[in-house]
Design brief:
The structure holds 2 protein chains of 2 kinds. Chain A is built from 9 helices and 10 strands. Chain A is α/β, with parallel strands linked by helices. Chain A has a 6-stranded mixed sheet, with helices on both faces. In chain A, strands 2-1-4-5 form a 4-stranded antiparallel sheet, with helices on one face. In chain A, a hairpin with a 2-residue loop joins β4 (60-67) and β5. Helices cover 72% and strands 3% of the residues of chain B. Classes of the chains: A alpha/beta, B mainly alpha.
Chain lengths: 238, 295
C-alpha cells in the first residue's frame, strides 16, 4: 500500500544522455497524487528529455525515478507504461497509416478504470465527428492534439505526461485543452505538464518547477506565481 | 477444341493456369518479404532458402517419419518459422539501425549457407514429392483439364494472402503492426512489447515462405536451388509492386504470374525476361513501385 504522504512520482538525481550528449545533470523533484505539475524552461533546458527519461525512451539514464514506490530506471518503456504512466509526445505521434478510430483505440488498456469512449467524446466532441476520417494525420492540429490526449485517457493510466499540448494551436483550442486538463484533475488524474506558455500553465497547474541546463533551478506554487512573475520572465527570456 | 487469336484454347488456358500457379508462389513469397521489410526494415534475402528449407522439411517428414502432406503443411512452417525467429533474435536484431545493405548481406550469406548445406546432403538433383492422395486427378472443364492439386494451390494461396491482408489492414493486431512500422518507440511507450512483435513478425513472414515451399514440393520437385531460382523473380515482383505494400505484393504477384504465362503463349522467346522488362519500366516511371508509398 502506498503511504498517502509519499509522492506518486519521485525523481532523484536523474541524469540522461542522447548518445554522447549529456542532457540531464541531476534532476530532482516530486509529483504528488492528484496534482498538476508544470515544468517550465527555455528550449533545450531538458523538459522534454525529463518526460522521455521517465518514460524510458532516451539513450541512457542514471539516478532514480520511482512511481508508486517502484523503481523505473532500468525498465524498458513498455514495462514503464504498464506500471501506469501514459505519454503524449510533443509531436503528438498520430499514425498516418491508421484511421482516426484505430489511432484512438491503439494504446492497450493497462489498468481498469480508464475513461470510456463516451467520456472522451464529452471532453472532445470534435473527435466523435471525425471518427470516420480515413487518416489520422488528415485532422487539423487541434484535432490531432485532442486525439493524442484522448487515446491515453482510455488506458487506465493515472499519471499523464503531456509535452507542450498547446504548441502551435489557436487560442480557442488552447482554452478547450485547459478545460480538459482541469476536468481530468477533478477526476483524480495526476498530470506532469511541459509548457513554454506559462500564462496557459497558470490556468491549470498547482506547482511549477523551472529547468535550466538540465537541472531544476527553482520551484513555486500557483499562489506564489504573481510574486515570481518578474523572475520567471528572466528565466524564460520572454 | 476452339481457338483464340489463332491459339488453341488448351494451350492458352494451360499457360494461364501455369501463370496462376507461379503467381500464387510469387504472391506468397513477396507478401512475406513485404511484411518483413515493413516491420524490420530488412530485405530478407534468405527468403528463398527458407522456402526451400520447408520443402526439404516436408520431404524429410515424409521419408523418415512417414508424416504426410497435410500435417507437413502445418509442421514445416512452424519449424522453419521458429528457425527464423532464432535468426532474428541472434543476428538480425543487431542490424535494424544500420543501412539496408547490412541486412541484405547477412541474409544473403545465410541463404548461401542454407543452400550449400542442403546440396551437401542431398545433391543438386530434384527429389520427387508425391501429390497427396486426396488431391490426385483433376477436373475436365471442357476447355481444359484442371489438376486438383493445382486448383488447391491457387485457392489456398489466395485465401492465405487475403487473410494476411485482412489481419494487417483490418484488425487490432494489424494496427499495432502498422503503428510500430511508423514509430516503434511510441508504440512501445504505450505498453506494447515491440521487440517481441518484431520477432513474431519475422517468424510469420518466414512461415509464409515455408508454406509456399511445402505447397511447391509436389509441383516443382524438392531441390536445394529451388529457392534461389524463384527468389530472383520474386524480388523483381517486389520491386514492381513496391516495397512494404501488402496489397501491392499480392496483386503484383498474381498479375505477373499471369502475364508471364500469357507471354509464353504469344511470344515464348520473351517469357523468361518479361518480368524484368516490366521491372525496368516501372523503375524508370515509378521508382517506388506501383503500390509503394513514396519514401
Amino acid at each position: 500500500m502506498l503511504d498517502r504522504t509519499d509522492p506518486l512520482l519521485a525523481i532523484r538525481d536523474l541524469q540522461a544522455w542522447y548518445g554522447e550528449s549529456h542532457i540531464l545533470h541531476g534532476v530532482t523533484f516530486d509529483v504528488r497524487e492528484g496534482e498538476v505539475v508544470t515544468l517550465l524552461g527555455r528550449n533545450g533546458a531538458g523538459k522534454t528529455t525529463t518526460l522521455k527519461s521517465v518514460m524510458g525512451i532516451v539513450g541512457q539514464r542514471k539516478g532514480s525515478v520511482k512511481f508508486e514506490g517502484k523503481e523505473l530506471v532500468g525498465l524498458a518503456s513498455d514495462k514503464i507504461a504498464r506500471a501506469g504512466i501514459a505519454f503524449c509526445p510533443e509531436e503528438r505521434g498520430i499514425f498516418a497509416s491508421l484511421d482516426v478510430r484505430e489511432n484512438l483505440m491503439l494504446p492497450p488498456e493497462i489498468r481498469p478504470g480508464g475513461l470510456s469512449l463516451d467520456r472522451i467524446f464529452e471532453l472532445f466532441p470534435n473527435l466523435k465527428e471525425r471518427l470516420g476520417s480515413s487518416q489520422g494525420t488528415k485532422l487539423s492540429g487541434g484535432e490531432q492534439q485532442m486525439l493524442a490526449i484522448g487515446r491515453i485517457l482510455r488506458t487506465g493510466a493515472r499519471l499523464l505526461l503531456l509535452d507542450e499540448p498547446t504548441e502551435g494551436l489557436a487560442p480557442v483550442i488552447i482554452q478547450q485543452i485547459g478545460r480538459t486538463i482541469r476536468s481530468l484533475k477533478q477526476q483524480g488524474f495526476t498530470i506532469l505538464l511541459v509548457e513554454q506558455n506559462f500564462r496557459f500553465a497558470s490556468t491549470v497547474a498547482d506547482r511549477y518547477y523551472v529547468m535550466e541546463h538540465g537541472r531544476i533551478i527553482d520551484q513555486f506554487s500557483n499562489s506564489e506565481l504573481e510574486a515570481n512573475v518578474d523572475k520567471l520572465h528572466d528565466y524564460l527570456g520572454v | 477444341m476452339f481457338e483464340i487469336f489463332g491459339i488453341p484454347s488448351q494451350a492458352l488456358f494451360g499457360q494461364l493456369l501455369i501463370g496462376l500457379i507461379n503467381g500464387s508462389f510469387y504472391a506468397l513469397l513477396s507478401l512475406g518479404l513485404a511484411v518483413i521489410f515493413g516491420m524490420l526494415n530488412i530485405i530478407n534475402f534468405a527468403h528463398g532458402a527458407q522456402y526451400m528449407l520447408a520443402a526439404f522439411a516436408a520431404y524429410i517428414l515424409l521419408t523418415t517419419l512417414d508424416i504426410g502432406y497435410w500435417p507437413a503443411l502445418i509442421i514445416a512452417p512452424l519449424i522453419v518459422g521458429a528457425f527464423g525467429m532464432v535468426l532474428e533474435r541472434t543476428m538480425l536484431q543487431w542490424l535494424y539501425k544500420l543501412d539496408h545493405l547490412y541486412g541484405l548481406l547477412l541474409t544473403f550469406g545465410l541463404a548461401l549457407i542454407i543452400e550449400g548445406t542442403a546440396r551437401n546432403f542431398y545433391g543438386s538433383a530434384g527429389l520427387p514429392y508425391r501429390v497427396p492422395d486426396s488431391l490426385q486427378g483433376g477436373q475436365n472443364l471442357g476447355f481444359m483439364f484442371l489438376p486438383n492439386y493445382r486448383a488447391w494451390v491457387i485457392v489456398a494461396s489466395m485465401i492465405v494472402c487475403f487473410g494476411t491482408w485482412f489481419m494487417i489492414e483490418r484488425t487490432r493486431l494489424g494496427a499495432y503492426l502498422r503503428a510500430a512500422t511508423e514509430n516503434p518507440t511510441l508504440v512501445r511507450a504505450f505498453g506494447i512489447n515491440v521487440p517481441r512483435m518484431i520477432t513474431l513478425t519475422y517468424g510469420f513472414g518466414v512461415a509464409l515462405a515455408a508454406l509456399a515451399g511445402v505447397m511447391a514440393a509436389p509441383i516443382y520437385n524438392v531441390s536445394p536451388q529451388m529457392g534461389s531460382e524463384l527468389i530472383i523473380v520474386v524480388f523483381a515482383v517486389v520491386v514492381i509492386g513496391g516495397m512494404g505494400s501488402i496489397l501491392g505484393a499480392i496483386i503484383t504477384g498474381f498479375g505477373l504470374g499471369v502475364i508471364e504465362g500469357l507471354t509464353k503463349v504469344f511470344f515464348p522467346e520473351a517469357s523468361s525476361t518479361v518480368i524484368f522488362v516490366i521491372m525496368a519500366i516501372v523503375l524508370l516511371v515509378r521508382p517506388s513501385g506501383l503500390f509503394g508509398r513514396r519514401i
